[in-house]
UniProtKB/TrEMBL annotation:
InterPro entries with a match to the protein in the record: 6-PGluconate_DH-like_C_sf (IPR008927), NAD(P)-bd_dom_sf (IPR036291), PDH_C (IPR046825), PDH_N (IPR046826), Preph/Arog_dehydrog (IPR050812), Prephen_DH (IPR003099)
Keywords: Oxidoreductase, Signal
EC number(s) on file: 1.3.1.12
Protein's recorded name: Prephenate dehydrogenase
Family affiliation: Belongs to the prephenate/arogenate dehydrogenase family.
Organism lineage string: Bacteria, Bacillati, Actinomycetota, Actinomycetes, Kitasatosporales
DNA damage in keyword set: no
Residues covered by the Prephenate/arogenate dehydrogenase domain: 5-292
UniProt organism field: Streptantibioticus silvisoli
Top-level taxon in the UniProt lineage: Bacteria
GO molecular-function terms, A-Z: prephenate dehydrogenase (NAD+) activity
Keyword Protease: no
Length: 364
Protein backbone atom coordinates (compact mmCIF):
# COMPACT_ATOMS: atom_id res chain seq x y z
CA UNK A 1 0.00 0.00 0.00
CA UNK A 2 1.29 3.44 -0.94
CA UNK A 3 2.16 5.72 1.97
CA UNK A 4 2.98 9.34 1.24
CA UNK A 5 5.73 10.82 3.36
CA UNK A 6 6.95 13.68 1.19
CA UNK A 7 5.38 15.98 -1.37
CA UNK A 8 6.21 19.03 -3.44
CA UNK A 9 3.57 21.69 -4.05
CA UNK A 10 4.30 23.93 -7.03
CA UNK A 11 2.12 27.01 -6.88
CA UNK A 12 1.21 28.42 -3.48
CA UNK A 13 -2.09 30.10 -4.19
CA UNK A 14 -5.37 29.21 -2.52
CA UNK A 15 -5.55 25.60 -3.71
CA UNK A 16 -1.88 24.73 -3.50
CA UNK A 17 -1.41 26.22 -0.04
CA UNK A 18 -4.63 24.64 1.24
CA UNK A 19 -3.48 21.20 0.05
CA UNK A 20 -0.05 21.78 1.58
CA UNK A 21 -1.61 22.80 4.91
CA UNK A 22 -3.74 19.65 4.95
CA UNK A 23 -0.78 17.40 4.11
CA UNK A 24 1.53 19.04 6.65
CA UNK A 25 -1.13 18.75 9.35
CA UNK A 26 -1.18 14.99 8.74
CA UNK A 27 2.56 14.42 8.95
CA UNK A 28 3.67 14.78 5.32
CA UNK A 29 6.82 16.81 4.69
CA UNK A 30 5.90 19.38 2.04
CA UNK A 31 8.36 21.36 -0.07
CA UNK A 32 6.92 24.58 -1.50
CA UNK A 33 7.71 26.26 -4.81
CA UNK A 34 6.26 29.30 -6.55
CA UNK A 35 7.40 31.66 -9.29
CA UNK A 36 6.80 34.37 -6.68
CA UNK A 37 9.20 33.56 -3.82
CA UNK A 38 7.23 35.80 -1.45
CA UNK A 39 4.11 33.67 -1.98
CA UNK A 40 6.04 30.50 -1.13
CA UNK A 41 7.53 32.13 1.97
CA UNK A 42 4.08 33.31 3.04
CA UNK A 43 2.71 29.79 2.69
CA UNK A 44 5.63 28.43 4.70
CA UNK A 45 5.05 31.01 7.42
CA UNK A 46 1.44 29.78 7.63
CA UNK A 47 2.70 26.26 8.34
CA UNK A 48 2.15 24.80 4.87
CA UNK A 49 5.68 23.41 4.51
CA UNK A 50 9.24 24.49 3.83
CA UNK A 51 10.81 26.40 0.95
CA UNK A 52 13.94 24.22 0.99
CA UNK A 53 14.57 21.98 -2.00
CA UNK A 54 13.94 18.29 -1.23
CA UNK A 55 17.09 16.18 -0.72
CA UNK A 56 15.82 13.57 -3.16
CA UNK A 57 12.73 12.50 -5.05
CA UNK A 58 9.47 13.22 -3.23
CA UNK A 59 6.54 10.85 -3.35
CA UNK A 60 4.14 13.21 -5.10
CA UNK A 61 4.36 16.54 -6.91
CA UNK A 62 1.19 18.63 -6.81
CA UNK A 63 1.11 21.28 -9.55
CA UNK A 64 -1.28 24.11 -8.63
CA UNK A 65 -0.72 26.66 -11.41
CA UNK A 66 -3.14 28.14 -14.00
CA UNK A 67 -4.23 25.71 -16.74
CA UNK A 68 -2.09 27.35 -19.44
CA UNK A 69 1.06 26.68 -17.40
CA UNK A 70 0.29 23.15 -16.19
CA UNK A 71 1.96 21.17 -18.97
CA UNK A 72 5.19 23.16 -19.01
CA UNK A 73 5.47 23.09 -15.21
CA UNK A 74 4.86 19.33 -15.09
CA UNK A 75 7.35 18.67 -17.88
CA UNK A 76 10.05 20.69 -16.12
CA UNK A 77 9.41 18.88 -12.82
CA UNK A 78 9.52 15.45 -14.43
CA UNK A 79 12.67 16.33 -16.40
CA UNK A 80 14.33 17.23 -13.08
CA UNK A 81 13.20 13.92 -11.52
CA UNK A 82 11.30 15.71 -8.77
CA UNK A 83 8.81 13.00 -7.83
CA UNK A 84 7.57 9.44 -8.18
CA UNK A 85 4.16 10.70 -9.26
CA UNK A 86 2.73 13.93 -10.64
CA UNK A 87 -0.70 15.50 -10.63
CA UNK A 88 -2.25 18.88 -11.28
CA UNK A 89 -5.28 20.51 -9.70
CA UNK A 90 -6.32 22.76 -12.59
CA UNK A 91 -10.03 23.25 -13.19
CA UNK A 92 -9.73 22.04 -16.82
CA UNK A 93 -8.42 18.59 -17.67
CA UNK A 94 -8.58 17.90 -21.41
CA UNK A 95 -6.17 20.61 -22.57
CA UNK A 96 -3.32 19.91 -20.11
CA UNK A 97 -3.48 16.18 -20.89
CA UNK A 98 -3.18 16.81 -24.64
CA UNK A 99 -0.36 19.31 -24.11
CA UNK A 100 1.60 16.83 -22.01
CA UNK A 101 1.33 14.17 -24.69
CA UNK A 102 2.66 16.67 -27.21
CA UNK A 103 5.65 17.44 -24.97
CA UNK A 104 6.64 13.78 -24.73
CA UNK A 105 5.79 13.62 -21.01
CA UNK A 106 5.82 10.14 -19.46
CA UNK A 107 2.07 9.88 -18.83
CA UNK A 108 2.43 6.75 -16.70
CA UNK A 109 3.60 9.02 -13.87
CA UNK A 110 0.72 11.51 -14.21
CA UNK A 111 -2.93 11.87 -13.27
CA UNK A 112 -5.10 14.92 -13.82
CA UNK A 113 -7.24 15.99 -10.87
CA UNK A 114 -9.55 18.82 -9.86
CA UNK A 115 -10.75 19.53 -6.32
CA UNK A 116 -14.23 21.09 -6.49
CA UNK A 117 -13.52 23.69 -3.85
CA UNK A 118 -12.61 27.33 -3.79
CA UNK A 119 -13.36 30.76 -2.40
CA UNK A 120 -13.90 34.26 -3.77
CA UNK A 121 -10.50 35.20 -2.32
CA UNK A 122 -7.22 33.94 -3.74
CA UNK A 123 -3.62 33.64 -2.61
CA UNK A 124 -1.95 31.81 0.29
CA UNK A 125 -3.53 34.03 2.95
CA UNK A 126 -6.97 32.77 1.90
CA UNK A 127 -5.92 29.12 2.29
CA UNK A 128 -7.20 26.71 4.90
CA UNK A 129 -6.48 23.05 5.62
CA UNK A 130 -10.24 22.41 5.75
CA UNK A 131 -10.96 23.77 2.25
CA UNK A 132 -11.52 20.33 0.71
CA UNK A 133 -13.31 18.53 3.53
CA UNK A 134 -16.36 16.70 2.20
CA UNK A 135 -15.96 18.21 -1.28
CA UNK A 136 -15.68 16.19 -4.51
CA UNK A 137 -12.15 15.79 -5.86
CA UNK A 138 -12.21 14.63 -9.48
CA UNK A 139 -9.57 12.15 -10.70
CA UNK A 140 -9.13 11.54 -14.44
CA UNK A 141 -6.87 8.49 -14.82
CA UNK A 142 -6.19 7.08 -18.27
CA UNK A 143 -5.15 3.61 -19.44
CA UNK A 144 -1.54 4.81 -19.14
CA UNK A 145 -1.76 5.95 -15.50
CA UNK A 146 0.40 3.77 -13.25
CA UNK A 147 -1.44 2.16 -10.33
CA UNK A 148 1.05 3.62 -7.84
CA UNK A 149 0.33 7.14 -9.11
CA UNK A 150 -3.41 6.58 -8.84
CA UNK A 151 -2.92 5.34 -5.27
CA UNK A 152 -0.85 8.42 -4.40
CA UNK A 153 -3.61 10.64 -5.77
CA UNK A 154 -6.22 8.76 -3.76
CA UNK A 155 -4.05 9.14 -0.65
CA UNK A 156 -3.80 12.90 -1.26
CA UNK A 157 -7.59 13.12 -1.53
CA UNK A 158 -8.00 11.10 1.67
CA UNK A 159 -5.48 13.25 3.58
CA UNK A 160 -7.36 16.37 2.44
CA UNK A 161 -10.59 14.64 3.59
CA UNK A 162 -12.23 15.12 0.21
CA UNK A 163 -14.40 12.66 -1.72
CA UNK A 164 -12.79 11.03 -4.81
CA UNK A 165 -14.81 11.06 -8.04
CA UNK A 166 -13.40 9.31 -11.12
CA UNK A 167 -14.32 10.85 -14.50
CA UNK A 168 -13.15 11.04 -18.09
CA UNK A 169 -11.25 14.29 -18.72
CA UNK A 170 -13.54 15.55 -21.50
CA UNK A 171 -16.67 14.68 -19.49
CA UNK A 172 -15.18 16.61 -16.58
CA UNK A 173 -14.66 19.71 -18.72
CA UNK A 174 -18.27 19.61 -19.94
CA UNK A 175 -19.49 19.14 -16.38
CA UNK A 176 -17.55 22.05 -14.88
CA UNK A 177 -18.65 24.26 -17.77
CA UNK A 178 -22.21 23.68 -16.57
CA UNK A 179 -21.84 23.73 -12.79
CA UNK A 180 -18.91 26.11 -12.27
CA UNK A 181 -17.74 28.17 -15.23
CA UNK A 182 -21.13 29.26 -16.60
CA UNK A 183 -22.46 30.23 -13.13
CA UNK A 184 -19.40 32.46 -12.69
CA UNK A 185 -20.14 34.32 -15.92
CA UNK A 186 -23.86 34.61 -15.18
CA UNK A 187 -23.11 35.96 -11.71
CA UNK A 188 -20.75 38.51 -13.24
CA UNK A 189 -23.34 39.49 -15.85
CA UNK A 190 -25.98 40.15 -13.20
CA UNK A 191 -23.52 42.06 -11.00
CA UNK A 192 -22.45 44.15 -14.00
CA UNK A 193 -26.03 45.51 -14.19
CA UNK A 194 -25.40 47.13 -10.81
CA UNK A 195 -22.29 49.05 -11.85
CA UNK A 196 -24.15 52.07 -13.19
CA UNK A 197 -27.51 51.50 -11.49
CA UNK A 198 -29.21 54.33 -9.61
CA UNK A 199 -28.13 54.53 -5.99
CA UNK A 200 -31.78 54.35 -4.94
CA UNK A 201 -32.00 50.94 -6.63
CA UNK A 202 -28.76 49.62 -5.14
CA UNK A 203 -29.96 50.53 -1.63
CA UNK A 204 -32.78 48.02 -2.11
CA UNK A 205 -30.39 45.09 -2.54
CA UNK A 206 -31.46 42.13 -0.42
CA UNK A 207 -30.32 38.58 0.15
CA UNK A 208 -31.42 37.40 -3.30
CA UNK A 209 -29.07 39.69 -5.20
CA UNK A 210 -26.30 38.96 -2.68
CA UNK A 211 -26.70 35.23 -3.30
CA UNK A 212 -26.70 35.60 -7.09
CA UNK A 213 -23.69 37.95 -7.22
CA UNK A 214 -21.53 36.42 -4.47
CA UNK A 215 -19.05 34.74 -6.82
CA UNK A 216 -18.88 37.85 -9.03
CA UNK A 217 -16.33 39.07 -6.46
CA UNK A 218 -13.83 36.46 -7.74
CA UNK A 219 -10.49 37.44 -9.29
CA UNK A 220 -10.95 38.23 -13.03
CA UNK A 221 -7.38 37.22 -13.85
CA UNK A 222 -7.87 33.76 -12.37
CA UNK A 223 -11.12 33.30 -14.26
CA UNK A 224 -9.59 34.42 -17.54
CA UNK A 225 -7.04 31.60 -17.11
CA UNK A 226 -9.82 29.09 -16.47
CA UNK A 227 -12.21 30.21 -19.20
CA UNK A 228 -9.43 30.45 -21.77
CA UNK A 229 -8.80 26.75 -21.22
CA UNK A 230 -12.46 25.69 -21.56
CA UNK A 231 -14.19 28.14 -23.92
CA UNK A 232 -16.06 25.67 -26.13
CA UNK A 233 -18.07 23.80 -23.47
CA UNK A 234 -18.87 27.08 -21.68
CA UNK A 235 -20.06 28.65 -24.93
CA UNK A 236 -22.29 25.61 -25.54
CA UNK A 237 -24.02 26.04 -22.17
CA UNK A 238 -24.34 29.80 -22.57
CA UNK A 239 -25.84 29.30 -26.02
CA UNK A 240 -28.61 27.20 -24.48
CA UNK A 241 -29.09 29.80 -21.73
CA UNK A 242 -29.27 32.53 -24.38
CA UNK A 243 -32.06 30.64 -26.15
CA UNK A 244 -33.96 30.42 -22.87
CA UNK A 245 -33.40 34.15 -22.29
CA UNK A 246 -34.76 35.00 -25.72
CA UNK A 247 -37.89 32.96 -25.02
CA UNK A 248 -38.22 34.55 -21.57
CA UNK A 249 -37.96 38.07 -22.99
CA UNK A 250 -40.65 37.27 -25.57
CA UNK A 251 -42.88 35.85 -22.83
CA UNK A 252 -42.46 38.94 -20.67
CA UNK A 253 -43.24 41.23 -23.61
CA UNK A 254 -46.35 39.17 -24.30
CA UNK A 255 -47.46 39.73 -20.71
CA UNK A 256 -47.51 43.48 -21.47
CA UNK A 257 -49.95 42.96 -24.32
CA UNK A 258 -53.54 44.20 -24.26
CA UNK A 259 -54.55 40.86 -25.78
CA UNK A 260 -55.70 38.38 -23.09
CA UNK A 261 -54.55 35.38 -25.13
CA UNK A 262 -51.02 36.77 -25.53
CA UNK A 263 -50.82 37.63 -21.84
CA UNK A 264 -51.84 34.11 -20.88
CA UNK A 265 -49.37 32.61 -23.34
CA UNK A 266 -46.60 34.81 -21.95
CA UNK A 267 -47.48 33.88 -18.38
CA UNK A 268 -47.37 30.19 -19.28
CA UNK A 269 -43.88 30.67 -20.71
CA UNK A 270 -42.61 32.35 -17.54
CA UNK A 271 -44.20 29.71 -15.33
CA UNK A 272 -42.48 27.03 -17.42
CA UNK A 273 -39.09 28.64 -16.79
CA UNK A 274 -39.75 28.89 -13.05
CA UNK A 275 -40.93 25.26 -12.83
CA UNK A 276 -37.94 24.01 -14.81
CA UNK A 277 -35.78 25.95 -12.38
CA UNK A 278 -37.50 24.18 -9.48
CA UNK A 279 -36.83 20.81 -11.11
CA UNK A 280 -33.18 21.59 -11.70
CA UNK A 281 -32.62 22.97 -8.21
CA UNK A 282 -33.94 19.74 -6.68
CA UNK A 283 -31.06 17.88 -8.35
CA UNK A 284 -28.36 19.94 -6.62
CA UNK A 285 -26.88 17.74 -3.88
CA UNK A 286 -27.61 18.86 -0.34
CA UNK A 287 -25.95 18.10 2.97
CA UNK A 288 -23.38 15.26 2.83
CA UNK A 289 -23.94 14.99 -0.94
CA UNK A 290 -27.45 13.59 -0.58
CA UNK A 291 -30.62 14.91 -2.19
CA UNK A 292 -31.57 18.27 -0.65
CA UNK A 293 -33.89 17.93 2.31
CA UNK A 294 -36.96 20.08 2.92
CA UNK A 295 -35.92 22.09 5.96
CA UNK A 296 -37.98 24.56 7.93
CA UNK A 297 -36.52 28.01 8.54
CA UNK A 298 -36.50 29.58 11.99
CA UNK A 299 -35.64 33.26 11.47
CA UNK A 300 -34.06 34.99 14.46
CA UNK A 301 -33.31 38.70 14.79
CA UNK A 302 -29.70 39.16 15.89
CA UNK A 303 -27.76 42.27 16.78
CA UNK A 304 -24.36 43.18 15.37
CA UNK A 305 -22.42 42.51 18.55
CA UNK A 306 -19.58 40.08 19.23
CA UNK A 307 -20.77 36.72 20.51
CA UNK A 308 -24.39 36.92 19.26
CA UNK A 309 -24.10 33.97 16.89
CA UNK A 310 -22.23 31.90 19.46
CA UNK A 311 -24.97 32.59 22.00
CA UNK A 312 -27.67 31.69 19.46
CA UNK A 313 -26.02 28.39 18.56
CA UNK A 314 -25.47 27.58 22.23
CA UNK A 315 -29.18 28.13 22.93
CA UNK A 316 -30.10 25.90 19.97
CA UNK A 317 -27.77 23.26 21.37
CA UNK A 318 -29.42 23.57 24.78
CA UNK A 319 -32.76 22.92 23.07
CA UNK A 320 -31.21 19.75 21.55
CA UNK A 321 -31.96 20.91 18.01
CA UNK A 322 -29.43 20.28 15.24
CA UNK A 323 -28.84 23.24 12.91
CA UNK A 324 -28.65 21.74 9.41
CA UNK A 325 -27.68 24.98 7.68
CA UNK A 326 -27.58 28.71 8.37
CA UNK A 327 -27.82 31.92 6.36
CA UNK A 328 -27.56 35.49 7.56
CA UNK A 329 -29.60 38.22 5.90
CA UNK A 330 -28.20 41.64 6.73
CA UNK A 331 -30.42 44.67 7.15
CA UNK A 332 -29.26 47.61 5.05
CA UNK A 333 -28.29 50.56 7.21
CA UNK A 334 -29.10 48.80 10.49
CA UNK A 335 -26.96 47.14 13.13
CA UNK A 336 -29.03 43.96 12.95
CA UNK A 337 -29.82 41.03 10.71
CA UNK A 338 -31.80 37.82 10.42
CA UNK A 339 -30.15 34.49 11.14
CA UNK A 340 -32.07 31.90 9.15
CA UNK A 341 -31.63 28.57 10.90
CA UNK A 342 -32.53 25.54 8.75
CA UNK A 343 -33.77 22.61 10.82
CA UNK A 344 -35.79 19.42 10.39
CA UNK A 345 -39.50 20.33 10.11
CA UNK A 346 -40.40 18.53 13.36
CA UNK A 347 -37.69 20.52 15.18
CA UNK A 348 -38.82 23.99 14.06
CA UNK A 349 -41.61 24.49 16.65
CA UNK A 350 -39.38 23.17 19.43
CA UNK A 351 -36.56 25.53 18.48
CA UNK A 352 -38.89 28.52 18.11
CA UNK A 353 -40.35 28.05 21.58
CA UNK A 354 -36.95 27.44 23.18
CA UNK A 355 -35.40 30.54 21.63
CA UNK A 356 -38.33 32.76 22.60
CA UNK A 357 -37.99 31.55 26.18
CA UNK A 358 -34.34 32.64 26.07
CA UNK A 359 -35.27 36.14 24.90
CA UNK A 360 -34.73 35.85 21.16
CA UNK A 361 -37.05 37.64 18.72
CA UNK A 362 -38.42 35.11 16.22
CA UNK A 363 -39.61 36.45 12.87
CA UNK A 364 -41.96 34.80 10.40
Amino acid sequence: MTVMRTAAVIGTGLIGTSAALALTARGVTVHLRDQDPDAARTAAALGAGVVDEPPGRVDLAVVAVPPAHVARTLAEAQSAGLARGYLDVASVKGGPGRDLAGLGFDLTQYIGTHPMAGRERSGPLAATAELFEGRPWVLTPTAQTDTEVLNLALELVALCRAVPVVMDAEAHDRAVALVSHTPQLLSSLVAARLQHAEESAVRLCGQGIRDVTRIAASDPGMWMDILSANPGPVADVLSAVAADLDETVRALRAMESADDGKRQEGGAGIEDVLRRGNAGRVRVPGKHGTAPAAYEVVAVLIGDQPGELARLFADAHAARVNIEDVRIEHSTGQQAGLAQLMVEPRSAPVLGVALRERGWSIRQ
